[in-house]
Amino acid sequence: MSLFDNYFAFATTVFMGLLAIVNPISAIPVFMELTSYMDKKAKRNIATKSVLIAFCIILVFSVAGKLIFHVFGITLAALRVTGGILVFVIGYEMVRGKNENVQSEKLGDQPVKADQGISVAITPLAMPLLAGPGAITTSMSYSAAKDLTHLAIVMAVYAIICYITYLLFIAGERIVSIIGTNVMMVITKMMGLILAVIGVQMFALGLKELFNF
Asked: Whole-model pTM?
């Protein structure tokens, strides 16, 4: 019973930590903005691929993160700088708003097929939003110096978070229909501003770690 309690406490700690970092609710406006030109089938496809890719990223770094960093000479600070730049650009574009004319020129009047927009599922949805430096670092720290049971718990917890995120993405349109497009637009711009600030903070933290100041 004591062992079970320890595993349960560990799982609860991992869940709360990863949930706070991933924050799937805050990712809904980003998903809605980036997939606003897609049909329902394409949105579901992108939602599925984004959470699967994010899960694979966390799995790889949880199992062999230190080895990957060592082989390629990558530091966590460099990852934070790069992730910060990406997050800032995403937030800036959300605040600025999309260009409807350019959008229509690129996509035309035909619905977007499921295979189009896969880059959106990879970046920014899977990484750095769902599997960014924070999530990678947290999963690596929880998995390090632990047995396979703890690693399995970390991956199971992150899988649950990915499934919750998928459900929120799929319910995005319903959420918009309830709160209205104007409110959603305000939320999107607010989240864009927050993402831009988070990007700057990640970038600054990465620079501080790189140059030790």
From this structure: 0.70
